[in-house]
Design a protein that fits this description.
Blueprint lengths: L1 H9 L11 H32 L10 H23 L13 H33 L8 H5 L6 H28 L2 H14 L5 H22 L3 H18 L1
Helix pairs in contact: 2-3, 2-6, 3-6, 4-8, 4-9, 6-7, 6-9, 7-8
Amino acid sequence: MSEQLTTTQEASPLEALPEHGPNEKRRRGFELFLVLLISVGSGFLSSLYLMKNGAGSIHNYGNYRWTIAIFQELTGLLLLGYVLSRRRLRFRDLGLRWSFADLGAGLVVAVGSYLVRAVGHFLVHWFHSALFLSAPSGSTPREVFGHLSIMAVPLFLLNPFFEELIVRAYLMTEVKDLTGSWTLSAAASIVIQSSYHLYYGWEGAISLSFQFLIFAIYYARTRRATPVIVAHGIFDILGLVTLW
């Protein structure tokens, strides 16, 4: 009886649903691919373009780039909501819940991930300098985002929900359910999330991956998305204030 209770408690809401054989797994794999393609595919391509050509070209779009980014992130979240509803699930089943404890946990995750990222950045910078004997290439946040308009505010507030619900909670849950490996799910989440930050250059993107590693480990251990969203939001708000 105790073993049955333990199994029931450990099963996530998405994992607890009955499977319908290989066809259902293929469908879920395709839905995962579709959500990622629509949500972050263009971000990955834009990141590669900016890494190669510099960040100056994006500023030609003016305020339209903020509107386009907001539209894309809202579209991605709506698509995720539809995919979840097809299986009679909600964002709550990915760990999006609200409590003061989650807010406090988010602050702890933010501090921990910042420290790990600082150590990671030092190691990556040291390794790059020792290997190539040259300064790393890549754009700074100021070069990427340029002058912020009022339209940047809703984007910076929306972005933590967009990234952490799609590329963390949903991606990790699906990969874990389809492969049985939390390690693989965390690795997939970190690689994909780092890939569309390549406009910071290889050193910047790899340094960020240390922060994403802490987010992924926390989610894998707790299945709570809200603290990770709060932690991500703290960094985005600080970035918004710094760049304003």
